[in-house]
Amino acid sequence: AKPPQQISRKKSLKNLLKRAHTTRASSKEKEPTSSSSSSKRSPIPEGYRLVDIRLPNGTKTQQPVNEAWTVQNLISATLLAHPTQVQSRGLDADDYMVWEVCASLKLRRALRSKELVTHILATWPLGDCDWYLELDDAERRLDVGSVASLCPRRDIVSAAAAGAAGSDEASLAYKCIAMQRGSRLQRWRKVGISVRNHELTLTELSSANTSTASSPRRSLDLRELDIYEVAAGGSSNSSTPYLIGLRVQRNPNSFMDPKRDCVHVLSFPPENINPAEDPAVKAYNTIRNVAFSVRSAEVDQLVKKARLASALAFERPTSRRTLASPLLASIRRGS
Q1: For residues 272 and 278, is the Cβ–Cβ distance under 8 A?
Q2: Distance between CA 321 and CA 331 in Å, rounded?
């Protein structure tokens, strides 16, 4: 006969194995239920993606967007999804605007209402969580010192807009001197700026003689650049006077050196006390207005091309029509 201690050990081992098997089986049965319940809590419609957006009260949320949505559509959907978060400001979409923000670079850009959200997201670095959108009060556009004041305007410099559209008749020529640095480099260099139609040329100048170039020229296509505010210090709600950022509207992952090639920060240090007579202030305003106008004309062309492509896709076989139907509906509404 086996000793009582050995028998009790075998029984306890059997009980443990039986209990583990029961627990494993029950967990397998519960897995589909938990996944299905989680999918019910946060459904994302087909053809949509989530974008991070900060609300006026400072809280962050995620809003589903599709390829057809403009910034104006995003504002309306966000207000409907979070009415209690903006209750004191009202729910009229015209009372709001949206910023594109990069906290680490201290940059933010006031978005045009007709820009496609997917075009904006396509310029963000892959896997970078430092970029987000921010819903703000439209009264920011009343601040003439902010780039947000440019958004309600159209074609501030008509020659620049015409040149961006491909007209050879209209031309814009302008030259000035400013200080330039990269996105993360703090060393400022004196540069000469030359604008001809949609081309902006930066030439580094020697410190001894501002009329002598010390490095080869660097040409930038203003149709691919957009203008950003550069935050003062650690604050993202105030901009440094006479300081602007120009960022290439392409994905930084396509560049060999994104820090050098994607962002160009220009400073226009004032020389006189009276801003109305200061040549540096005049240069700042001119470059800012020209850059915004040329890019605005290009954005209009990009939106038209995207809508035309969606309309053509809708005319194809029925199996492919569902992809273009949201954008076609917005076209029919005239948005």
Answers
A1: yes
A2: 15
Q: What is the DSSP string of 15-51?
A: HHHHHHHHHHHHHHHHHHHHHHHHHHHS---TTEEEE
Q: Tokens 């029925």, residue?
A: 318
Strands 107-110 and 189-196, how do they pair?
A: unpaired
Measured between alpha carbons, how far apart are the two ends of the chain, in Å?
90
150-171 tens-digit pLDDT: 887 544 444 444 444 443 334 5
> In whole angstroms, what is the distance from residue 241 CA to residue 238 CA?
9
Mean pLDDT, all residues of the chain: 75
The contacts found for 150-153 with CB under 8 angstroms, 24 or more apart, are 150/110, 150/227, 150/288, 150/289, 150/292, 151/97, 151/110, 151/111, 151/112, 151/113
The dihedral built from the CA positions of residue 50, 300, 297 and 278, taken in this order, carries a sign that is negative
Query: Would you say how long the chain is, in residues?
Result: 335
Structure confidence by residue, pLDDT tens digits, 27-73: 444 444 433 433 344 578 788 899 999 998 889 999 999 888 999 99
Task: Give the whole-angstrom CA distance, residue 153 versus residue 293.
Answer: 9
CA–CA distance, 335 with 331 (Å, rounded to integer) = 6
The pLDDT of residue 53: 95
Q: How many C-beta atoms lie closer than 10 Å to residue 242's C-beta?
A: 20
Query: Which residue is listed with tokens 């958004």?
Result: 151
Helix (H, G, I), strand (E, B) or coil at 119: helix
Pairwise CA distance, residues 287 & 308, whole Å? 32
- Residue owning tokens 């057809």: 68
Q: Residue 111 CB: number of other CB atoms within 10 A? A: 24
d(CA 124, CA 249): 9
Sheet bearing 173-181, strands edge to edge: 60-66, 48-54, 131-137, 96-102, 107-110, 225-231, 239-248, 263-267, 173-181, 189-196, 199-204, 218-221
